[in-house]
Predict the structure.
Amino acid sequence: MSVNDPYAALRFKEFNIFLLVRFAMVFAWSMQFIVIEWQVYSMTKDPLSLGIIGLMEVIPAVSMALFAGHIVDQKEKRNLLIKCIFGFSVISFGLFMLSLPSVLETYDTKAILYGIYTLVFFGGLVRAFLGPTIFSLIALIVPKKIYPNAATWSSTTWQMASVLGPALAGFSISLIGVHWSMCVIFGFSLLALTALFNISKKPILNPKIGEPVFQSLKEGLNFVFKTRAILGALTLDMIAVLFGGAVALLPIFAQDILHVGSEGFGVLRAAPAVGAAITMLGSTRFPLHKNAGKKLLIAVFGFGVCMIVFGLSTYFWLSVIALFLSGAVDGVSMIIRQTILQLKTPDNMRGRVASVNSMFVGSSNELGAFESGVTAKLMGTVTAVVFGGTMTLLTVGLTAIVSPGFRRLDLQKDVEEHES
């Protein structure tokens, strides 16, 4: 098997099962988030309520992230992932029950909102463990020499699910309503849970089993902050996502600015992921590890420009194109970041490093949603999106000036060392 084979990781049966599990989970999670956003904004017509959804998920995700990384490094990964997916299934079933017509008729809007926010909060707890577990499991399924290829396919699967989940959510809301859309989500979570049992248990590679929690956490943080390539990539992406979180405001654009309904909302929500998926499929044949630093800076700059264009647009298809291109350049950013993490992280620290990644990048999506909701409330929706895009451009410029070493980052040597 050649390391230059674009399908190298797909030659492993368990990796294909892993991709099915990841697809089903991301599909369910992204679809669920869209359905919740639509329901909450339809109930309240308040942009701040959309921000609160993100805040309710990010609080437990951030507060538990480092502890979750310690647990992941200490435990067997397959069984831990089973527990995570089971937890998500319980939450999705709870949201299904909350959307029952009889429940909506019996309880007032505030009570339903509190119920949704509570379940989203518990979803944040699950997510704190889910990301590090998935990141750690990949390294136990494929050989080290094809980590970059496996990371690309894993990210591509994530994006494909992110395309179809939101797209189906928009059409599903229109065709079968919120309640039965929640039932579809629950079904996909059960599919992921069933498929996961076809992956065998994996060895625990951490030699420090039983290590005190705080010592373990300190070791993980020290590694991230001393590894400049990881720290630079995480920081840049975090700021971009934090201020470029226009996606959280899409229900407002769909309903009140572009007037395209739930079907148009599904198209808008899927457009970034379509762009990212195309980028990622292309990267399996045209790797991005050479001159990675420059490519990452250019990609994030392009993302900021796309957000400004989207914010100013009053034409549906121009908005779709802007979101599509934002996803395409964001796909470049995601691949480079994941490649850096896979190549630079030792096996015994993958859970902790992935947790820090979750705090920097994953949680910034929800913080970005909250920031967008607050700024939209204070400045207006369009001004909030343009402000976020402008802050992203300023961040890229500042990073390029103060970190010349990051501009020169090249992963070619690291890839060759893993291939040898």
The first helix runs from residue 13 to 44. The chain is about 80% helix and 0% strand.
